[in-house]
Amino acid sequence: MDETHDYDLLIIGGGMVGASLACALAGSGLRAAVVEAVPLRAQEQPSYDDRSIALAYGTRCIFAGMGLWSSLRDVVTPIRCIHVSQHGRFGVTRLAAKDYGLEALGYVVENRELGRVFAQHLKSLDKEVTLFCPARLQALDFGAERVTATVEQDGKTLALRAALVVGADGGRSLVRRLAAVPSREWDYGQSAVIANVTPGRPHDGVAYERFTDSGPLAMLPLGRNRCALVWTVARGSEDELLALDDEAFLSRLQARFGRRLGTLRKVGRRQAYPLILIRAEHSLVPRLALVGNAARTLHPVAGQGFNLGLRDVAALAEVLWDARRRGEDPGAAAVLRRYLDWRRDDQRRVVAVTDGLVRLFTNPFPPLAWARSLGLALLDVLPPCKRLLARQFMGFAGRQPRLARGLRLEY
User: What span, in angstroms and rounded, lies between the C-alpha atoms of 147 and 151?
Assistant: First the structure.
């Protein structure tokens, strides 16, 4: 080894979830290091690409507790209403922020804007967080009292030792594989086509979730004159859509989405990625915690993935702050058990809801299609049921970490 460094906590992955955890631990007294494979600049970080992301209202509260919301409020677009429908079927459900005394049910932000905020904040924490960026993880050695990560940076081999390693390195997590944590996968046989679209009418802060026979199609409000498109299609058909010229693509999209936003006028750069459900088996691995997509990767329906990952961060940060205050080893089995027990119900519930929605609304069985339509129509006139649904999508179901209540973590 060329160099050896010691820390309390080692975060593998400096994308949105890993960076959030580093920010949430600021002031805790824990010495943290972040290992990220690409430079800490929004335009180069894969998780800060052209995509946009829906932030639940509960996520806004977490960012507020971390002191980041003031840097985001001017670049987010509020979701004031959610409109849910089926292509070619009757029945609509609407959720409105005003019905719950809120300014918004959630927000939409471009990933690169999140990247800019995280990069600026992490650089201001240089006395508390050490960045190994760009650097690549090569190996993990789990010992009784420490984890040793072998990392390659600028042609040097580094040994980074810590009491706890956190895997925040995405759905194809190298940390998960090196730690031999088993996982289950379900390939939906679908791909998500993403792009920014300019509609003919103002979106007025309405997010549309439209279920089609190939999967859900979301149009999220983005700025004054754009919408962020997430269009689920059958695997294999995405190549045809990407190859269409803009006029033909918009015509195909118009036929699926309808005319609630008028005539779709313009589409930006298009991308596609496969949709696979990945769930790590959360056996208690000594000195390891998984967060975000490293713990489970969801279908994008209802935009729950990042918000669930940020609740992982909020809970883990609170557990680690409390452990520090008590003088406990942050990687001790008892500490990790508190984190896993806290997060289990929320994770299972969100996986069940998102996976269930996809399976329910892509089933072509005619009586079921009729029942779905009736269900949407009934839900729209049942305020108590809508409130339960809204609480789930806003991230308020279950036990709430301090950060999720907008409270800072402090001694």
Answer: 13
